[in-house]
Amino acid sequence: MAKTKVHVIPHSHWDREWYFTSSRSTIYLVKHLKEVIETLEAKEDYHFYLMDAQSSLIEDYLRYCPEDKTRLEKLITDKRLITGPWYTQTDQLVISQESIVRNLLYGTRIAYEMGHSMAVGYVPDAFGQGGNMPQIYKEFGISKFLFWRGVADNRLKQTEFIWRGDDGTEMLAEQIPFGYYYGANIPENEAELKKYLDEQIGALEKKASTPNVYFPNGLDQAPVRKNLPELVAKFNELDSTREYQIASPETFFADLEQDVMDLPVIAGELTEGKHSRLHKSIFSTRADLKQANNEIENFLSNVLEPVLSVSYSLGNRYPHNELAEIWKLMFENAAHDSIGGCNSDTTNRDVKHRYKLASDLATNLLDLNMRLISEKIEQKQAFQFTIFNPLPYEKSGVIKMSAYIPDDNFTMEDTQGNTLPYTILEQTDLTEYVLNQHIDLNPSKAVYLPKKVFLATMLVEVNNLPALGYDTVYFNLEKETAEQEPKQSTASKIENEFYEIQLADNNSLTIHDKKANRTYTDQMVFVENGDDGDSYNYSPPRKDLVITSKEAVVNSVDSSVSSVNQTLTISFKLNVPYNLEERANREKTKEMTIKTIISLRKNEELIRFDVQIANQVLSHRLCVTFATEIASKFSTADQLFAPIKRPVRLPEMDVWEAEEWQEAPISIEAMQSFVSLHDEVHGVAVMTEGVREYEIIGDNYDTISLTLFRTFSHMGKTDLLYRPGRASGESIVATPDAQLLGEINATFALTLFESSFDEANIAKKAKEYLSNPPVYQMSDFLNGRLIYVYRDEEKTLDATYSLKLPMLDGAIVSAVKKAEDSEAFITRFFNPYLQKEIAIPEIFQGKECHLDENKSNEKQTTLKHAKVQTYLFEK
Which of 377, 481, 534, 852 could hold 411 in an S-S bridge, CB 3.0 to 4.6 Å? Predict the structure, then answer.
């Protein structure tokens, strides 16, 4: 019988921040990597060291020790110091698909520049694995997968298997069954060592299906074990039944591939928390930070990069370096545990600050590039606006914009002179400030100065915005229009072409679908209950008190009607417990106010919700529910580049306590932007701009519950109802910031459809919902400190423009950007359907490239289920 080959993998799992800050982590990283370099250089038999597959750690080190770059390059080129493919280790179910792609793009590029990027998808601590990751890994030349969390022994009896992604891509996978820290504590007393090896390696041998076992030597922020070569030599002396060697993940897989056969296949996302906790409700931890993350991710890929591509096509510089800085700030926050929010308050304040920096850089980068275009368009009116369409097809509809407007009556017109209906939602008088900071670089030029200037929020109906381009609209001050401010009343009903919405007697909404002649009751019910969990897990109190908006007192009901929009504003007052103690005693001593603005835009099939909560109570959760009357065994949501069907209830809930699961297998799930319940002829979908967490509830599992926020008192707590036993985080770390006291905002939308899911194009509606066209105002009276002074530019651009990149009908565009290494444009599409395939026109064939932007030799004629495809079009 062949000897067991024990692959000893020296490593350190390096959280960039957690209960400690990134500043502390970085200071210790410099010390640690300095010691690793010195140890590897001094000991040739210290063959490998795995630095947690995060290229950002190399960047961090070189920021302080640039003199060591050559030394690092040699060790990485020789594959002794292992880095990449990630920029930061990320949790795959919490962030967007483009964030994952860019994380790997920057991570592999930095590693390759230093000499080598590890071709293994290494995620030792991520809370679950996305179902489409095999395809994403393969697109980066990665065909091996090494992980810990996500698979239970009810599905996997051994450590080796084939992981099949939702699109059918397969890769060789190895589970680290007992955690990445399993071999960290090696005794050096010879008398203890033999017993230790027999027990530790013996347990791995029982799990392995080949003579190869993966034995990780390291843990969180672990120092390099300088005498590891001597210890491994001692292992071989003491244990003649096994062969021990210092290895890397790549050398391990090279040997494993020689011995594997007839491996089991496991398909889809890996989210079983039987042996290792998955913390599925981490999706709503620190809802304020999750919302910031989600809004910025959507802004970067849905708005900023497409507009930058339009700007670049018109001769402006494409800001790769600025974008890299923004994305890297997002990756720092996307790192495990940063994105989870399961950190100390001090650390989460750092996370929040990075979101502010990323948001500021991104919004100003957009502003600059819209200006570079707008200032070169002939100015025909004193109030002129450039409206950008970031989508790859023409777009009509009602858009939201900010504008500095006069006190005069005006109409809005497009370049053809067509009148554009609009309404003013709110306005603030800024006359004195705006006009006093005005600067004339050219005093000889006559400039129109309005008598009054208001900063307004407006809704405008636009028509046929050019695909990936812009259009110009104007205020015509010579042409009066009807009153554009909405008419206010106390009516409790609104409607548009598609829906009629009425506040019901039980404080819910009744929604009538006009086209289908179908009525939905018990819509928009807010559900508040206790949260006895911590930063890792939602867990209901053992003595809970559930309160709904059906019990609320209605403070006020107002409606607003204009030519382009109707809104219904409802203010509820809920009496709720102040804390868990009051909840257990069924006391309700505090008021929680929920103000909701429900909007129906003209000719739009979305019902928009803007919720403002005055939160003054502790340790609780707020959800909003929509009863669909569609009893289903599955929900449909969007994940990484694909829709996914998930069971509404996992059967493991019946046995988890008897089988001693690490945590309850609850069906609280993640989404990218939408969740739907449907049958073959109709359905309901909820879309979100905020927390990406949902659950299907109700006796018949026919109600969509969207989490708005949850709050808690400590980083870690012991013996939760949904997670028995030890705390996951540090139980002594209180997190008062996580109570989210103050105002909390949430925005989401609802759509009803009378068709199959595929025919309803839910993903397209969600994409449009998250891609509001940005607008730039070109008015000479604004020239001054407020915007940074601009000079007159030669008017070389047309009033309308389209980049006219080819569109793949039916597919969802995930990215439009300039290529990293050429003058070409990158476009990325994915199939959003459960069953339909998409025919790829000939113009796309031969333009295929991989996610890493390297040329692909595989011509694609069909975009199949769950497939993503990237194309390279020359400028």
Answer: 481
